[in-house]
Design goal:
This protein is an all-alpha fold. The chain is about 55% helix and about 0% strand. It has helices spanning about 10-20, 25-35, 40-45, 50-60, 65-70, 100-115, 115-130, 135-145, 150-160, and strands at about 5, 50.
């Protein structure tokens, strides 16, 4: 069985409607109640892969049959070479970005040529824009994702100062 699962495209609307139906007015409410990060909940609701156990937890909270809504990948699907610096699924077809071509182009160019820290920041900003959120909560999520790399950043600063 795969280590990560994602909601099949045909079930995304069903999953999103379950959010309201089961008393979660916002994605943050579900994240808090399930003990998971907002990024994980957003990924789940958008059909991006998340950890298997997190997928089961969110399905339980939303009273969904995880086996029904999980995307079933064909065994023969080719897997592309991924950069070791990409920590999540690539954003290839952002939705709801009409009229934001300049910002999108800038963010995608930064994602292609910048280190991990900038990729995390840009990716999280794209997710919040996709959700139509205009506040600064994306910064907190980005910082949370960067915490595991704190030692690496400190070592890199020391090397740069030599």
């Amino acid at each position: 069985m795969a280590r990560s699962l994602r909601v099949a495209p045909e079930y995304i609307n069903k999953v999103k409607s379950a959010l309201q139906r089961h008393g979660y007015p916002r994605q943050q409410s579900l994240a808090t109640d399930s003990g998971l990060g907002l990024f994980t909940v957003k990924s789940f609701l958008s059909g991006r892969p998340i950890d298997y156990l997190n997928f089961l937890e969110l399905c339980t909270k939303l009273v969904l049959d995880w086996q029904e809504i999980a995307y079933k990948e064909l065994e023969t699907q080719p897997t592309g070479e991924a950069s070791p610096f990409i920590t999540g699924a690539p954003i290839t077809q952002p939705r709801y970005f009409f009229g934001r071509e300049k910002e999108l182009k800038r963010l995608f160019n930064l994602l292609k040529c910048q280190p991990l820290i900038l990729q995390i920041l840009c990716r999280e900003r794209l997710f919040t824009l996709e959700e139509g959120e205009n506040d600064d909560n994306w910064c907190e999520e980005s910082l949370r994702q960067m915490k595991p790399f704190a030692d690496l950043f400190i070592r890199l600063e020391k090397i740069d100062s030599l």
